[in-house]
């Protein structure tokens, strides 16, 4: 199950003050990206990815999502409206979601808008949202999806 998330062509929309978004170059072709933020409740959420890029076409060939670390969590436990079914949905659709980056250029990825609140937390998308454009995210796991997009 996927929802649409908008694309815009402004790089500045991707970076939020106070959030960690610094890429690390990985040889031979690619980089590691991290996006994290502290929630209003003092929890640190985020994602760390390794992105492989074809050196000739400059397109993404693979995105690997690292597991949660002691420093940050991408997939939290069931809490409030976030259920075990939602966690299972993310896990069931994560591989396909990561494949959706394959074939994109860095410019195309950088143009994906991920709306966030003042803490840097990706906003959820309403079921009837319009104007979000062309990038698919996992329904019911828009925050986890948004963290990954911002890390890539």
Tell me what the structure shows:
- The structure is a single chain.
- The protein has one domain.
- The chain has 152 residues and is of the alpha+beta class.
- It has a four-stranded antiparallel beta sheet, with helices on one face. It has a two-stranded antiparallel ribbon with strand order 1-6.
- The protein contains three helices and six strands.
- The chain is globular and about 45 Å long.
- Residues 1-19 and 127-133 have low confidence and may be disordered.
* SSE pattern: EEEEEHHEH
Round the mean pLDDT to the nearest integer and report it: 76
Question: Ends: how far apart?
Answer: 21 Å
Q: Give the spatial strand order of the biggest sheet.
A: 2-3-4-5
Domain tally? 1
Structural class of the secondary elements?
A: alpha+beta
> Tally the helices: what do you get?
3
Gross geometry: globular
Low-confidence stretches: 1-19, 127-133
How many β-strand runs? 6
Alpha carbon gyration radius: 15 Å
Biggest sheet layout: 4 strands, antiparallel
What share of the residues lie within helices?
10-25%
Beta-strand residue fraction: 15-25%
Annotation keywords:
152 residues; alpha+beta; 3 helices; 6 strands; 23% strand
TL;DR?
This protein is 20% helix and 23% strand.
């Amino acid at each position: 199950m996927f929802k649409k998330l908008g694309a815009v062509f402004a790089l500045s929309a991707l970076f939020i003050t106070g959030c960690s978004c610094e890429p690390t170059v990985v040889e031979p072709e690619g980089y590691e990206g991290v996006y994290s933020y502290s929630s209003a409740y003092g929890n640190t959420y985020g994602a760390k990815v390794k992105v492989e890029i074809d050196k000739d076409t400059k397109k993404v060939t693979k995105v690997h999502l690292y597991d949660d670390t002691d420093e940050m969590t991408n997939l939290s436990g069931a809490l409030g409206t976030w259920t075990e079914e939602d966690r299972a949905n993310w896990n069931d659709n994560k591989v396909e979601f990561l494949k959706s980056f394959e074939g994109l250029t860095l410019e195309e990825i950088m143009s994906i808008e991920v709306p966030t609140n003042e803490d840097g937390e990706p906003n959820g998308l309403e079921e009837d949202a319009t104007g979000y454009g062309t990038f698919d995210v996992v329904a019911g796991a828009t925050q986890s999806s948004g963290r990954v997009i911002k890390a890539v």
